Records
---
Amino acid sequence: MSRSLTGQKRRVNRRAFLRGAAGVSVALPFLESLPQRSAWAATEEPVFGLFISAVGGVVAADFFPDATGPLTQAALRASDKAVKELADHADNLLFLSGINWPADTGGSDSHVDALCMALTAKPPLPIEASSGNERMAAGPSADAFIASRLHPGRDPLALYAGRVNNGYAAQRLSFRGPGELTPVIDNPYTLYQQLVGLASPDGGTTPEGEEAAQLLLESRKSVHDLVREELTALMGNSRLSATDKQRLMQHFDGIREAEKTLSGMGDAAARGCTRAGLDVTRLEALKDYVASSSNTEQIVELHLSLVALAFACNHGRAASLQWGDPYDSTIYDVPSNERRWKLAHISHRAQSDSSVGDDALAAQAHAEIDVVRMRTLAAGLEHFKARGLEQRCFVMWTNQFADGPFHSFHDVPHIIWGSAGGYLKQGAYLDAGGVTNNQLLNTLITAAIRDTGEIVTDFGQGSPKLLDDIVA
Amino acid sequence: VEQARRWLRIGLLALPCLGAACGQVERPAGASGNPSAGSNSGGENGVAGAPSAGATGSGGDGIELAGAPIYARVIRLTNSQWERAVADILRFDAPANLSAQFQSPVVGTTDFSNNEHVLFVDGRAFADFEAGAEAAAALATGSVAALAKVHDGDDAAGFVRSVGRRAFRRPLTPEEEATYQGIFARGEELYGTGFVNGAALVVRALLQSPHFLYRSELGPGGKPLNGYEVASKLSFWLLGTTPSDALLDAAEAGELDSVDGLESRAREMLENRAAVDVLRDFHGQLLRFERFASLAKPGVPADPHLNAELEQASLLFFDRILEGGHGVREILTSQVGFVGLSLAEVYGLEPPASGLVERELGPARRGFFMQAPFLMAHANGEESSPVQRGLRLHLDVLCGKIGAPPAELPLLPPSEPGQTNRERVEQLTASCGGDCHGKYMDPLGFAFEAFDGMGRQRDDVEAAETAGSYPFVDGTQQFADAGELMQLMADGTQAHACYAKKLSSYALQRDIVAADWPLLESLTPVSQEQSLKELIVALVRDPAFRLRSEGTP
């Protein structure tokens, strides 16, 4: 199209301006994420969405409550299921069974295929059977789809907890489009660095940041006033047609919208956009991060704490987190794993990447690992709760598979936290009835982009409709 | 030339008479406007005065002239124009790619993405331009050296005057100078005393001003644009950027007030490399070069270089048309192509040592549409696609009209034993009804059946597979194959009229409608006989370019 006229893409961020024109010498990275897309100017409150997929399946019999119905903190605490770890969040939770991936079985590599389908609701792109680990998704993932609708040209926040350079198969969750992976951040410290200029440890903005932001607001106001005057004068030209005047009026209105955004920026701190609650010590310790087989849960929790901050500060509206490698080598320190098997082998019930067995101790270890992972999720959700995001976002958790050794694509467990602006039911365990995950993703996408007024029913592959059962 | 004009008139007149879905054209709502006021060719009345007997008897279905131009007096810069203009105003060494994340115009509703219909400033665009202006100001004032390039001095008044003139593409009024000096002072008030702080805020304000963001034509209808307006129009069209200081000086001196003066500047610009880039954008949009990047051939071993080579070969082909003094005739008949490692194999030529080189492709390939990029881009994998090829020629090269396809397109069935691809397609499209396939698209596409989906020449093609006819504005013409078809198009009127229409649409940034027929009547013979450069010059000289259109209420 116009490639020859635009050249190579290079983004110049707004930090540069603040150094050059404002005379502020400190780096203010977070100002780059100040809302350019007027998320706070919308009639509807913006909704943020995080999609998580863990790996290795769960022990289904020990995971969800035995019966569907209302969720209460007391009942969950009394349960012997893995999700009892989420009891404190019961009021904001929705458990979902009866969700299937769009393909009945995997191709040559079900581990990769499953992740490719988790957020795209499409079977992966076909490739040669001998290289199944190279399979890619056939469409954009839900996080990328939301980002494309709300801030085109800017990727969702795609995070990874695992060994992204494991040499076989790694990120397969977030895709910009067919076959195109979204760049991921695997080290929470990297994301922390992007956000660090936001707020002081006590929860207030830094003095330098406050001053720079205030100057930016005031200088923009001056420019807006001038542009408004010029537009008004131009619209007074009698030779302009009605259409010309409508166009200029549209421009005029655009300034008003931008100013609403500006006023919203001042509410940032009130919306939980503070550095409070971050485990700065642990984050700083990750400067020289190397993924290992023992720190997956720690990385997940740190990622979750930073996504909560990013959402509270309107640093993008969608995010995803792949919780483990497709063939995960995390060695969980649980009572039944004294043999130090990695997760993939525990999931297979055999010490093998390619075959499955029926090792009972591995099954017990898997159930214990489910508990550990639900504990990590609960801790991560605490960060979202602390920033008051229960009504302003959703966090969707799922797994690569429904279970361990069989790697089933049917009845894959889903957990949703948050009401997405009152759009989603909460405090319930529902059976979706064996539907393809496109319906769930349609619903979550629609919730996330509600401020655009768009209802999405044709995402992925499957019946083009919403999952009405989960809509409040 | 007279014959060409006559056939063009006939074609235009015949448009509303068509009854079939293909070729049926309704008179556009805005066609009553007369954008070429002052033209000596007549406008709507000229169409009405065309010989009606010829119109009904020609069989020519004419070029599509639907649309609803706004004739905007304020036209927002495109993202690309914004990018280049900012770089030139602020004396960047090269565009800084600040617009990479700007909202893109809606595509598909207009011929080109620079059409007035798709350029506006809404909330999203305002935020884009604001962020872009702030980033540009940061770059321009980020160092003493950078700021010195923007303005060689440290006085606020001089800064406002010189940078303001470049940004507004005209001198600032005294009131505007005072206002922007006030902005300079405001910058110092907010950020502290210092030239850089005042200058930065002035740059931010200038780049968000409607006088920068919109190219305007504010003079009386039917009268020539003033020197500054026509300087901007010319520079943004031919160079894709804001007028240079020298061009503004020429405007100030009245050198652009005469047609010859304007032509002289246009000819200078056409020797500038930036004009080649603009024409790349034009041809790229016209012929959908964006397809090349994602083109995939299922079942064919991937060639990592092929996609880029297809695009590059296409760009170089059209570069050569412009720079070599060629025109539409050569686009349709040139036997020269550009060949790299991948395309050499397609053409059966010795591969070059590196890069793409100009090669004679031989008489079997005449013009761009018989070269591999077009043939590969419009195919079903390794198989040819007569429907796609014919459709693109009918719409993009001959400006034919076509109705909407059925809601559910039937799939092409597998070949039956002994059946040619043409017979297979005819069997499928016979049931489509109307003239779309049988009269317009398919005959054009079948002409290329000598080439498979990879652009390779087939050695088993029969004459019956490629022969056909098409109802040109000059009358229905028979052709034996694509080579003859290309020659007919080069010798005829319709492809030239269509190209003139497309070029005018891109240059004037609006739909070209029936009321523009005097413009097309003037340009078509130039296209038939002269080069692309001469065609551009003719357009610059035309009243449609130089004069302010009457506009709509």
---
Amino acid sequence: VTNRRSFLASSLGIAVLGGSMPLALMRAAGAQPLPALGASIDPRNVLVVIQMNGGNDGLNTVVPYSDDAYHRVRPVIGVAPNTVLKLDDRIGLNPALASLMELYKEGRVALVQGVGYPNPNRSHFEATQIWETASPERPQQSGWLGRYLDRTYPANVKPPSMFEAVALGDTLPTALVAQHVDVPAIGSLGGYAYNTIKDAKTSAGALYDGAGPGESPYLEMIADTARNAYHGGDALRAKIADYTPKAAYPNDAFSQQLKLAAQLIGSDAGTRIVFVSIGSFDTHANQRAVQDRLLKMMGDGLKAFYADLAAHQIDKNVLAMTFSEFGRRVTQNASNGTDHGTAMPLFVIGGAVKGGIYGDHPSLTDLDNGDLKFHTDFRAVYATVLKNWLGHDPADVLAGSFQTLPLV
Amino acid sequence: MRDIKLDTSTDPQVGFRPPGSLDPEPLAPYSGRFTVRHAAHLLRRAGFGGAQADVARAQSLGMPGAVDALLHPEGDDFDFPAYPANDVLYTMNGGMARSGTQLWWLDRMLRTKRPLTEKMTLFWHGHFATSIDKVPAALMAEQINLFRAQGMGNFRTLLASVSVDPAMSVWLDNRYNTKAHPNENYAREVMELFALGLGNYTEDDVKNAARAFTGWTYNNKTQQVVFNPKLHDDDTKTFLGHTGPFGLQDVVAIIVSRPVHQRFIARALLEYFVYSDPEPELIEGLAQTYALSGYDIAKTMGTILRSNVFYSTRAYRAIPKSPIEFAIGLLRYAGTTHVPANLPYALRRMGQEPLAPPSVKGWDGGPAWINTNTLLARFNYVNALAAQAPPKADAPNIQPDAIVAQTGFDAPRVVEAIVSAALQDDVTRDVRETIVGYLTQSDAVGSAPFGRENYQQKIRGAVALTLNLPVNQLN
């Protein structure tokens, strides 16, 4: 793998920095204009967004174990202090996050506490739209990452790779809905294919390759898109063939998606934005069993992912961030679960992240109608990632101005 | 008088009129030839397309007769249930209320004898976009029934009905809109998205309309919207230059009387039924028709469907099909008699899950329907459908035996029969030759040339290739 890339790089007279990432190579070698970058931004940086679908209970993710108020509101489902993975003398991680704790100890995890927005919405649908469009005030069609892509690649500029941004799932999440950048949604490597009845495949390809544009203003665009749709699956499989995962990923669907993400990032696919989902965290009843299993899955998957990336020497160029549409109510309900709430913590992970704790744990006694008060707007985290990681002006993507966090 | 050259050649690429060069009298009744292609165009736009026989029937009626048959359908429709039948709901697994309600409506689109009514229902669903992601399925069904009952009637009545529709009341929170705690959500969308358009009202207009809409509460038990005078603000409001103690009906009446509203509806109808980016003088002309009709949607639609501009080359196959138009059109063309259970899921992958628009703005439509994910979903849906042979329940009625009985094993004639039935010959010579090549040649996969042994399979393959052509993605 490395040899071929190094050869390519040297033949083009390009120094390959810190490993064998083909991204810089592709971008430097291509004729496409580069997005405006800050001086210190590495153009090979990759963002992986992890959606914790269903509303993750923050209080049992990052546990204020020394706070009596926590144990009063969580008599059954509370995490016992002696099992908590202590971050300091007040808070600790749910023991199901042992793998994430390992990454934390290596300084690769930033914990951002008390994240939310004004007038929080408790509907899964609406709150998810709010997070993914970064627009709490008004409905928006495009996602925050979709707008980032649209601004980076205007209508007449194609991204260097068809797989510049990829959603791992059957349908495109709102976060990646763009006006003119086409983002593939890939449910599985095998499923992303033009499936045809027996022997018609070659002819289908000829129809898209040869179809001349007609008179409709859209016919050429449709034929062009049809070509990409027809060839996309085979192109993807060919591009990632030379990336061999160097870590043992667990067998669950989430970890397998992260494995595919590593292949996309580390191969000629040249992917820079990945969206992946895990869930459902909608734990209205018997929360501990469900949430602990999912948290463990997430932590174990991320540990394998970063081990794989590190073995390929690209871990410092990959930043993962979690989000969930809302946290949950402070007080447990009668079914040993929790109902829809407000503020929550999120994690930003990666070899280049300044690990640590950002912001205080929200108070369990100074509440808003029984819900936690947020202190960090989620768009401040987006602004941080856009500006400090992707080198993009946040004002170009987000309405309003948000203070960035020093986590990367 | 007009430059209509649709029927002069099998090549559709003639006489295309670029945007902005409007013919004289665009809304006057079309009096040119009404060919199979005109009839198919009418059925696609004013319905969901049809089988070859449906197109032939429409063509035999002539343009005025075919339009009248759509506007004033005679005879009873099939006996559809008013709500999803229990046997539809309960044969489904998880999310059965959701998919059951979706299938209930899709079935109606597929089998109805009143396709324009159902098409208008779909139009209003996108216009007053409400989602089952927030609203209970039963209320969604009731809202669809409202669009079906009133969608061809008077817009003023429709807007007033939508304003007290339970699904809308839940969707945009007007149920929480009271004198003490006004909630502007619904009032704002009425102005921005439903009736006026951005820039045609002020923030004060939103506030005052919201006050006029107060007091319409939603009763969870009865699932009804009920007016509670105690929660209504009956003080004086100033709205779009009028002042008075306005209520809901007053606000609706003021809105529809505005020329800017009339242009707003005219543009929405033209974009959906004729072509994107309609000329200002065309919008103005239709807005006048709409206003003179007293906001009558059926009359306005009649003007559109009979007009010169509707049959112009600029309108012909000019709009990307929505996924629902594509899929229902496919099933109608193929003579399928029931909706496959996986269709709601397939439509989701194609980018238009019915009853689940992405936001109150509805689906963007037009070119936004087309991306690699949605096209791949369309292609694979066609491929899977065409591969189904009888006696499978979902099998399309492709009838390879009937085709070869007519054409023999003459590949070019077989292809003519297929592209004529499916696309009214709207394909280039190159495309025909490629499909003929598929039928006649062995390729690397090792398939045999066209003949007695494989014509069933080959004809299904040729139909799939035809239906997956870029031109079939256009309405």
---
Amino acid sequence: MLGNFSFRVILESLPAFGSGLATTLWLSLIAFAGALAVGIIACALKLQPAKLLRAPAVVFIDAIRATPLLAQLYFLYFGLPRLGIVLPELFVGILALSLNSGAYVAEIIRAGILSIPRGQVEAGISSGMTFAQRMRLVILPQAFKVTIPPLLGQAIVLVKDSALLSLIAVAELTRAGQSLASDRFMPAEAFITTAACYLILYYGLKALAALSARWVGLRPARQDMPA
Amino acid sequence: MMIWQQLQSIVGSYPLALRGLGTTVAVSLIGLLAGSLAGFALGMLRAGGNRLVRLVIGAWVDLIRGTPFLVQIFLIFFILPEFGIELEAFTAGVIALSNLAACFICEIVAGGIGAVPKGQVEAALASGLSRWQRMRHVVLPQAMRIILPPLVGQYVLLIKDSSVVSAIGLTDLTRVGWLVVQRVPNGLLVFGLVGLGYFIVCYPLLAIARRIERRMSAAHAEVQL
């Protein structure tokens, strides 16, 4: 039973969990920025009419979406040294997270752009706008708003996924739990505290997502004009 | 030359690979089946049921959705024994995956049911259908249209999540890759093949999800004419 559940041990190891939480937070932030960059590039390529440009993006996105993050992580972790690229575990982890989430971000942005009613594009064309002007002034401002809530959803997924980096010995939150569990044989204390730390991040991001959804809903992008 | 030797060495470990594939398929299949059953039941309760039941289910779903699957597996594998429940890695993995599946599917099902217009339920009530009849003959068939595309997408995510059970020593496809790469130091090749194994299972499902979505939205557009 958990009769000997020790809050004292949790209190003693709070500094370790604090630094683990901080690491998880900032590495997730960097990885999310990377995912945005990867996603924007992949999405831009996928929307090109030229097949030669579109194909690599399609292959990349499908390959990422149809394989587990853990396999991708090991692919880079064990594979990069093979190419003569030796990086610290932390970098490999952030790279894997960025590429993985990037594929999902690309799909989110694409869905946002495609959700803009065709009439908007036609109105842009008939106003004599160039393609670049239509994108910049008509489509992207509306698409941007629509994508914020699902992007925050992806950020939540990314934070949780970052737990896998503990398996390549990155000293983040889950690793802090693993250390406590193995050093002092207290898995209950260790992993319940770990879970609680993730829940703090989860509820924070979830509140942000709800706020942004309301913001989007309060000032909705104009839907189809009445005829 | 070296790659040729490595390939031979990898081909030589095909019994291990088959075992890994079998474990991945078994864990995923049991997890998805149990998770779907529990998920649909919970989803219906969450959409209808009394307030307390809804609250409890909602809180549990939030706990599971808010924590990494890896941490959930550790919790189940290391803490249940403290309650006198000794678990094998396989059982722990299956329980963890079923629970995860149930929670995500619960949300999808509840969302689908919530999207069915209220008038439909009122019409069924007026026709004197019982609660179960309303659910079975009126609400669920219409909700399925909304549930199906995200459900298939969720299946893909869950099959991929099953790779995390390798962390407690279960010899699934990912673990096999990890074991082989210790002997054949070519991560690109080994995990390229592991990825291919998952791709063969997941890609068709992704394609199906895409097709269902297109067909459903086309059918919907027809109705709305």
---
Amino acid sequence: MSDTIAPSCRKPGCQSATTKSCAEGHVPLDSCPWFGTNGPRDDFPSEPKDGAASADTSLVILPSGAPLSPQTLDEFLRAYPIRLIAIVGDPDSGKTTLICAVYECFLKGRFPDWRFTGSRTLVGFEERSHDSRTASGRVTPDTARTPLAESAQFFHLGTRVVDDAAAHTELMLADRAGEAFAAVRDKPAIGAQLIEVVKADRVAILLDGKRVVDSETRGSAMQGVRKLLRALINGGAITKRSEVQILLTKKDLIAKAENAPALGQKIDDFFRLLVRDFGSEVVRLSFWEIAARDPSGDTPTGLAALLTDWLEIERTAAPRAPISGSRRSEFDRLLDRAGLDYLP
Amino acid sequence: MTPIHHTIIGLPRSGKTTFLAALYHLVDSGEVTTALKIHSYSGDQTYLNQIVKSWLECKEVIRTSQAGDAKVELLLEERATGRRITLAFPDLAGEAFETQIAQRRCQPDYVRGCNLNGGILLFVSPDRPGDDGMTLVEQGTVFGPPTPIEAASAAAAAKPWSHKMMPTQVQLVELLQFIQLPPFDQRQRRVAVVVSAWDLVGEAQIEPKEWMRSEMPLLSQFLQTNQKTFESRIYGVSALGGDIKDTRTRGSLIGMTHSERIICVGPDCPPHDLTAPILWLTPEGQGGK
């Protein structure tokens, strides 16, 4: 039997062999395009330097409009404070769809309280939105999977309160391949390398409503979220300073399910246990029901309230905080009926 | 005083060439009173004369991509003050603007022109393709859900994404965002948005600003929230005056005084004066003689 040599990163200066952490933020390590190669893969575009003259011609290079990498996010941060939202979830749970739906609402002017001020990542939004548009030639909407080879990607939306010219907020939505979160569930220690989760103002964990409706996949979907939350806490990515949102997606499917009342009870029970077991581990644990792509209507459900929560509520240092804002889920309404103001 | 040099921006088929033909006739003929008149001819007038001839005859004006790469400048003069204003069309075809979007490159001349003292005339056509940013969910609410066979065959024939598929308003926001960053000068510019073919919209009895807010909310909000860099006004313009493909309309237009065919709607804008947006781009106290 021949000896095997463990692959390592070939990027000049990379310390991942000793630190076990990717300098470019790729999780797991072997998803980095430099890993085990002599250079980045051809499909890994490099970001041109904004405003610089092109080397081979006299043309002026303009910003790429692509999603920001952790490196280009750092450059952005030198100029502007941001509100960072980490979108977290299993493969196909709808992370990119959610990001595209928020962008689409700005594109169509559907947020009554917020105005668009600009975006450095319009090309990224548009490319990700393509399979949901008629221009794609499709007849049913889809969203392309985020490649595992890409590290965290950041989508930018400059926003402003409708009647307040001074209240600008630079919203940054972080996306990453769902396989990375599956890996964290297996190895919680690598969770701390998910830089977008560690630094997030909100960690939004998606619970796929389609899988919840199906009795065969319901258990794995719900327990997957629970295990991921625990892994992120155990690995140090989510701390007592974190604000965590559980987003139940495809709300329209839940409402149309034959066993909708019983299903609603199961969802409430799931949320209640999450709060019981993890509520004291974070600043705030809240629950949201959304339908980013409800085929019966043109206005996504729940996104306006979610956006307002992302943009308006400031982080607090308190280990426990009252639930602020209106009750948003069946479980929240249960708390109302119980007269509770604080998470147990 | 520093010479004024306004830059014209617009994607292909956004109405720039027809606007230029109507403007050139308007300021040269003196048929109606306008705020600006032509100061002098400069350079080769062949292309300008060609498009004005088509415009006068109520024929489709030859688009620039069919006539070669035309870079056109008009030297205008304000009647009241004698101020001179250069109106520069860096790319009448608009293909260079598509290249900016797709290739993320632009010509140094374009940067130099934008950095001169002046504003921007931004062209928008209301006659956009039906799939301009439409989602399949929106389409589904109109036409109903597809059959499984339709879905499968469409998925197999799906088209790959390209920059050209970006909705018009997104491309225009992107073109303006480029100008907010170096090497473009960081200063406030005036932007006069010209919604062309306004006769297509005008029957709806809607103001140009309201049309923008309703039909291009992203661009409208961008201009509204970026007033430190772009002070904007919205105008509705029909350079042809109506649909020349309609025989009755064309017959009616041909019988009119040419300059009176022109429709221009917007703030401080006499009904036929295409020079009003250009004059607004030139604040008092600016411009040379």
